[in-house]
């Protein structure tokens, strides 16, 4: 009987056709990030490629600090081996008391998908249950919602839904779960849904689908945030006739009643879905300037005023043709929208995060030239503003003389040192191993263990 059971386990594991083991809901022996290329080639390289384990900017949030257990939980796009591009939707945890990380868990094995557009996002509810929103891709690959079986525990997850959703952005509000996401209806349109328990959700509600001319396609990319659980807001761009390579303009809208009504920043009511090109929700008409807009991050200042971080450029092609790649913030000061340039880098897909406090605003990202020119990522720096974003100075270099480019620096919700931001590194142009890191504003950096023999290990301090 024992031999029969063992044989049955082996058959289930490898499958009758010799298929690889499905890793969903299993522990994994290390933190291994996925490398990706879009395969849209130009003179100076792919439209984007590189270390995309913490991609995309439209997956928000990727990490949350939970003071109840003094841990930072974080999700990312993992892979099986250094020489493979097999996407695993992963979750890990950093224990601030012990300074150790647990072995990560495969929340969902994408079973052959190599595309980090399917990376997960994260939410922790009032009872401590951890929710992982696994992105799908259009109507070809479904998305999923997963819930931990125990509060503040990453060992076991149950699937709650299977649905069409891309770029999940879930937020915990005082009303319940609020979820911004995208559906590939005409071409990329913005939706939202709400739930009081995470299990039962409202119908998908169309938020924005703005064509240039009636009958044309539409499209948007967004970033969002939640202010003190009281209101949600979103900044988004516009894709003329659905063309993602022409992304332009900047819009903003918010809701303080769980999505029942929507307003512009002055409180003016907006009718859903947003369909008009010229609307009070439009913050800047970048199409007139011939500028592309790449959304990165947003947050609210202490007064609940929205602030957006983005890169604007002269086009979608990598290299000098689309330069300058200007890192910008646009903020509402209570009376007017104001826009300021922080610095420039060398790629549209350079991505950092925004940190707002009363005395100082900071940005962490790959703003400095890296080892692979005109590629995604670079060397990391901290930028600081003491006058609410009007003037910026480079405060600290976090990395230098790196062999690999650092990319997609992410801010945990309610972050606590030393896990103030995390990211991945890799070659910007050629397939490479990709590792994960986290750091603090004092300049300390740790590398997460790529191979783990024990259930918990200390990350390697490299700076």
Report the structural category.
mainly beta
Q: How confident overall, as mean pLDDT? A: 95
Which descriptor suits the 3D outline? Answer: globular
Helical residue percent? under 10%
Query: How many strands, what sense, and barrel or not for the largest sheet?
Result: 7 strands, antiparallel
- Ranges with pLDDT <50 over ≥5 residues? 1-18
Describe the structure.
It is a single chain. This protein has 463 residues and is mainly beta. Helix content is 3%, strand content 44%. Strands 1, 6, 7, 8, 9, 10 and 38 form a seven-stranded antiparallel beta sheet that branches. It is globular.
Quick tags:
463 residues, mainly beta, 7-stranded antiparallel β-sheet, 39 strands, 3% helix, disordered N terminus
Q: What is this structure's SSE topology?
A:
Layout: H1 2-14, E1 26-27, E2 35-37, E3 41-42, E4 45-46, E5 49-51, E6 63-66, E7 71-78, E8 88-95, E9 100-102, E10 105-109, E11 120-124, E12 130-134, E13 143-148, E14 157-163, E15 166-172, E16 177-183, E17 187-195, E18 205-208, E19 218-219, E20 222-227, E21 231-238, E22 248-255, E23 262-263, E24 269-270, E25 282-284, E26 292-300, E27 306-313, E28 325-332, E29 337-345, E30 353-356, E31 361-368, E32 379-385, E33 393-397, E34 405-410, E35 421-426, E36 435-439, E37 445-447, E38 456-457, E39 460-461
Parallel strand pairs: 17-19
Antiparallel strand pairs: 1-10, 2-5, 3-4, 6-7, 7-8, 8-9, 8-10, 9-38, 11-12, 12-13, 13-14, 15-16, 16-17, 17-18, 20-21, 21-22, 22-25, 23-24, 26-27, 27-28, 28-29, 30-31, 31-32, 32-33, 34-35, 35-36, 36-37, 37-39
């Amino acid at each position: 009987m024992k031999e029969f059971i063992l044989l049955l386990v082996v058959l289930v594991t490898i499958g009758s056709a010799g298929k690889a083991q499905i890793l969903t809901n299993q522990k994994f022996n290390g933190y291994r990030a996925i490398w990706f290329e879009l395969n849209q080639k130009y003179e100076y390289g792919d439209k984007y490629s590189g270390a995309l384990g913490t991609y995309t900017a439209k997956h928000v949030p990727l990490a949350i600090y939970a003071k109840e257990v003094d841990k930072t939980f974080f999700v990312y796009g993992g892979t099986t081996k250094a020489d493979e591009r097999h996407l695993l939707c992963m979750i890990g945890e950093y224990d601030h008391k012990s300074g150790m990380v647990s072995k990560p868990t495969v929340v969902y094995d994408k079973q052959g998908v190599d595309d980090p557009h399917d990376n997960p996002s994260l939410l922790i509810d009032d009872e401590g249950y951890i929710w992982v929103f696994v992105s799908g891709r259009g109507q070809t690959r479904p998305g999923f919602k997963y819930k931990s079986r125990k509060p503040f525990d990453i060992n076991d997850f149950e699937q709650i839904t299977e649905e069409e959703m891309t770029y999940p952005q879930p937020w915990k509000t005082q009303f319940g779960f609020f979820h911004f996401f995208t559906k590939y209806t005409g071409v990329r349109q913005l939706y939202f849904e709400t739930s009081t328990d995470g299990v039962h959700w409202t119908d998908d509600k169309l938020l924005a689908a703005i064509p240039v001319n009636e009958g044309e396609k539409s499209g948007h990319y967004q970033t969002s945030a939640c202010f003190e659980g009281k209101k949600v807001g979103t900044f988004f761009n516009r894709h003329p006739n659905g063309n993602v390579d022409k992304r332009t303009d900047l819009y903003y809208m918010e809701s303080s009643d769980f999505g029942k009504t929507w307003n512009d920043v002055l409180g003016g009511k907006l009718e859903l879905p947003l369909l008009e090109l010229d609307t009070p929700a439009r913050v800047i008409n970048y199409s007139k300037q011939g500028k592309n807009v790449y959304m990165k991050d947003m947050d609210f200042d202490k007064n609940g005023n929205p602030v957006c971080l983005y890169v604007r450029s002269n086009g979608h092609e990598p290299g000098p043709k689309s330069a300058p790649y200007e890192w910008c913030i646009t903020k509402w000061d209570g009376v007017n929208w104001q826009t300021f340039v922080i610095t420039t880098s060398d790629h549209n897909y350079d991505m950092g995060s925004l940190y707002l406090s009363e005395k100082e605003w900071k940005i962490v990202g790959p703003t400095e030239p890296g080892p692979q020119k005109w590629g995604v990522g670079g060397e990391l720096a901290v930028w600081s503003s003491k006058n609410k974003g009007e003037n910026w100075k480079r405060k600290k270099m976090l990395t230098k003389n790196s062999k690999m480019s650092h990319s997609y620096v992410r801010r945990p919700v309610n972050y606590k040192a030393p896990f103030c931001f995390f990211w991945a590194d890799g070659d910007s142009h050629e397939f490479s191993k990709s590792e994960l890191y986290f750091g603090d504003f004092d300049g300390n950096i740790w590398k997460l263990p790529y191979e783990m023999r024990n259930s918990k290990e200390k990350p390697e301090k490299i700076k």
